[in-house]
Amino acid sequence: MLYLKKANLEDGDKEYEFYSLLPENENGFTNVFCGISRERFLSDVLPAMIGYDRGIGLPEGYVPETSWFLWEDDEIVGLFRIRHRLTDSLRSGAGHIGYSIRKGFRGRGYASEGLRLAVEKAWEVIEEDEIYLSVHRDNPASLAVQQKNGAYIHHADEGSYYTRIPRD
Hints:
- By secondary structure, the protein is an alpha+beta fold.
- Helix content is 30%, strand content 30%.
- The strands form 3 sheets. It has a 4-stranded antiparallel beta sheet, sandwiched between helices. Strands 7-9-8 form a 3-stranded antiparallel beta sheet, with helices on one face.
């Protein structure tokens, strides 16, 4: 069974394992915790990540963000970050949702179903009439995932497509 679950302390070891396998920057998804120790992840990073969901301890210029792990039964296969609102830089860049699927699970529909579930969660906190996303031009699979979930290309530049999913 595939489902989303918020970052939490009880699943910290599995969440750390997922983060430890993510590259520092892949297709625009950044892992600022790349190379961090398990101990520091569990004692500092994970509690901060959980606080960000409630707007607690946010770095200057950041907005509340919920980290949702995509689980297949008892294994984490992906991560979806939902930013609750947009700053000017998010509006013209990354947007509301960023996601990554674990290598070995790509190309099997996890991103499409995970984004569908994430969009449902996003509408609970996002006030805008559209969900903003972006995707690198050299990542057509992710563009297809977004379009499968109702996104249209709003505009593009040399490196990225900027897509929108309208509220139904």
